[in-house]
């Protein structure tokens, strides 16, 4: 990350799927007025030493072997002002639809998860109260279908939807350094739901026409 003199800390997410060695570097802008700053590297609130220094850059070398070494690593440059940059080391996030999936009884619901890196395994869950229950494809062949579109894209299809399928679903991608989850909300509506506004309008028209007709009959009788 290249650090200027802005008081707003720089942020960068770094995705790691498996154990690896990595270098994090903070570099001061060439035209910066911050000369010979005092530089500190921290992991969270713990101060750590940097392993390489040039005139305008400071580097730490890390060996990430397990999930406990993930987290936030920051470089803090102090001089006339204080500036900083933070690297967030994390397992890859899962991309997926954020808005609720709204469909109708008898239809098909589709949920798709995608990751930047290839996971070791995929798992889908449905929510039962506060518990997550893994969906077993072999025992739910008439209800659920799993389709792996590619090594890093996984798709769940829920067939013949009913009201009982309403709820929260999760997909989980397991990596060697940990796992990520993505939440999906499914709303199954009655097939009559789209017709309710139309039925309401028709009912209002019928009431209006009937009222006008009765008024005309009443008016004619009154004239006689």
UniProtKB/TrEMBL annotation:
GO biological process terms, alphabetically, are:
cell-cell adhesion
Answer whether the UniProt record assigns the keyword Transmembrane helix to this protein. yes
Query: GO terms for CC?
Result: membrane
Matches recorded under InterPro entries:
CD47_Vset, Ig-like_dom, Ig-like_dom_sf, Ig-like_fold, Ig_sub, Ig_sub2
Q: Which domain of life is it from?
A: Eukaryota
Going by the UniProt record, its keywords in alphabetical order are: Disulfide bond, Membrane, Repeat, Transmembrane, Transmembrane helix
Q: Transmembrane region positions? A: 198-218
Where does the Ig-like domain start and stop, copy by copy?
A: 9-86, 92-190
SMART domains registered for this protein in UniProt: IG (SM00409), IGc2 (SM00408)
Q: What is this protein called?
A: EMB protein
Look up and give the organism this protein is from.
Edolisoma coerulescens
């Amino acid at each position: 990350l290249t650090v200027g003199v802005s008081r707003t800390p720089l942020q960068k997410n770094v995705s790691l799927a498996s154990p690896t060695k990595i270098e994090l570097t903070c570099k001061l802008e060439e035209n910066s007025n911050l000369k010979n700053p005092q530089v500190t590297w921290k992991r969270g609130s713990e101060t750590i030493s940097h392993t390489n220094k040039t005139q305008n850059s400071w580097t730490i070398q890390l060996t990430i072997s397990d999930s406990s070494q993930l987290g936030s690593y920051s470089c803090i440059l102090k001089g006339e002002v204080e500036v900083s940059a933070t690297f967030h080391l994390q397992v890859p996030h899962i991309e997926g639809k954020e808005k609720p999936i709204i469909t109708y009884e008898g239809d098909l619901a589709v949920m798709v998860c995608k990751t930047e890196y290839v996971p070791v395994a995929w798992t889908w869950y449905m929510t039962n109260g506060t518990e997550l229950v893994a969906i077993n494809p072999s025992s739910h062949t008439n209800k659920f279908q799993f389709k792996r579109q590619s090594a890093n894209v996984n798709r769940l299809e829920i067939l013949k939807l009913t009201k009982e399928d309403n709820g929260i679903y999760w997909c989980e991608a397991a990596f060697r350094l940990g796992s990520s989850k993505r939440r999906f909300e499914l709303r199954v509506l009655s097939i009559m739901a789209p017709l309710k506004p139309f039925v309401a309008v028709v009912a209002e028209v019928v009431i209006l026409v009937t009222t006008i007709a009765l008024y005309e009959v009443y008016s004619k009788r009154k004239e006689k």
